Amino acid sequence: MNIVELKDKKISELTDMAKTFNIDGAAGMRKQHLIFALLQAQIEKDGLIFGEGTLEILPDGFGFLRAPNYNYLPGPDDIYVSPSQIRRFSLRTGDTVSGQIRQPKESERYFALLKVEAVNYEDPEVAREKILFDNLTPLYPDRKVNLETSSDNYSTRIMDLMIPIGFGQRGLIVSPPRSGKTMLLQNIANSVIASHKDIVPFVLLIDERPEEVTDMERSVNAEVISSTFDEPAERHVQVAEMVIEKAKRLVEHKKDVIILLDSITRLARAYNSVMPPSGKILSGGVDSNALQRPKRFFGAARNIEEGGSLTIIATALVDTGSRMDEVIFEEFKGTGNMEIQLDRRLADKRLFPAIDIKKSGTRKEELLLDEEILNRVWILRKFLSSLNPSDSMEFLLEKMSGTKDNKDFLNSMNS
After folding, report:
1. Average pLDDT value over all residues in the chain
2. Exposure check for the chain: N or C terminus, fewer CB within 10 A?
């Protein structure tokens, strides 16, 4: 029996399994407690269970394997990892560890890891040799992420041409309320997953509405990690730290990882709530030290010379009426190497994507686009700069609607 398979099952399937093991009161149990009972019953039957999870090391030196299914929340079915195992295999927070587990002893509350069989899906001895993320060499993105997947998905077609994303991009989607940022994130996520099967995608939703979380989980085939608005700021911070640490560990193994974060503003608000006051308060009630950790999160995005990359595309909220949100945005403005500016007036006219082309762009786009395409994009930008945002978007949508892909669209510019 594998603990990961149990966590992926629906509660109705687990209840049916509980009947075969003669577990009393299964229908009234929470999912995590029911899994705990099933594991205990399985151990009593034949003794072998395999577990997997993402390691979180606590200040006392020991750690627990948390499950992404529960957004890395502590639960009764977490697996205890001893300090000696952590030292022996040089484990760090964010490592995905799998192996054989044993039943808790009389005075214990948790299952314990008996034998480490894989770290980040590799042999534990190989995993020990990896170079620390902070020691890897950051470069400008020089490999383009292909966002163009279908002729009628104009959001990603326009981005692929005018605001290209590279592996290792640090992008900011600047969005007023109700401008279509969530739909744009979904389109980006689905395009990236469809075009690049080997990329590891994460969608991190901080301080979001529960129904938006469900919608994202059903719309995007990626690991969706969330902390909804009814949860405390400490929870938002813990979720974000776990996701960025897991991403860093994967990049150390030369994987390409993308994190889509909604939103960096709410994450910065959460850090501002949990940080001890320094006595220096900026305008809007932001503590001067509070933004250092969200900046470190955003700054982790980079293309790695030794192999692998970490791409972060985050939304930043503006025009919310909150002075704090303005201060947070001003602090993050200029830290990214790609910016997409959404315009509420375009969204009000039902023009999607509501992108202000003139204010949006990618730094060093010449590293991502072929020279011929780049020259045509510059000619197109020169023409669009004389139009207002609404007219330029209408022009692009009208011209793109008659072409099957961007190559066809650029060729039509000659005629």
Report:
1. 90
2. C
pLDDT at 1: 64
Spatial separation of the C-alpha atoms in residues 308 and 141, rounded to whole Å: 11
Which residues have C-beta within 8 Å of that of residue 37, sequence separation ≥ 6? 18, 21, 23, 26, 29
Amino acid identity at 126: V
Rounded-to-integer distance, Cα 84 and Cα 192, Å? 40
State yes or no: pLDDT of 415 exceeds 60.
no
SS3 state at 303: strand
Residue 368's CB is within 10 A of a number of other CB atoms, namely 22
**What is the Cα–Cα distance from 357 to 354, expressed in whole angstroms?**
9
Helix (H, G, I), strand (E, B) or coil at 263: coil
Return the pLDDT at 42: 74
Peptide bond into 263 cis (omega under 30): yes
Q: Return the structure tokens found at 229.
A: 């608005």
Span of 255-259, 275-279, 304-308 with lowest mean pLDDT: 275-279
HEC states along 95-152? CEEEEEEECCCCCCCCEEEEEEEEECCECHHHHCCCCCHHHCCEECCCCEECCCCCCC
Q: Which of 336, 6, 343, 380 is nearest to 158 (CA)?
A: 380
Coil, strand or helix: which one is 156? helix
Alpha helices in 28-106 (DSSP H): 31-46, 83-88
Contacts with 78 (C-beta within 8 Å, 6 or more apart), sequence order: 53, 64, 65, 66, 67, 110, 111
Rounded to whole angstroms, how far apart are CA atoms 383 and 235? 48
Question: Helix count (H) and strand count (E) of the chain?
Answer: 16, 16
Tell me the CA distances in angstroms from 300 to 26, 294, 338, 355, one per residue in order: 44, 10, 15, 26
Contacts of 210 (CB under 8 A, 6+ apart): 228, 230
For residues 260-274, b (16+ Cβ closer than 10 Å) or e, as one string?
Answer: bbbbbbbbbbbbbee
Element holding 53 (H helix, E strand): strand 49-57
Sequence-ordered strand ranges (E) for 183-268: 200-208, 223-228, 256-262
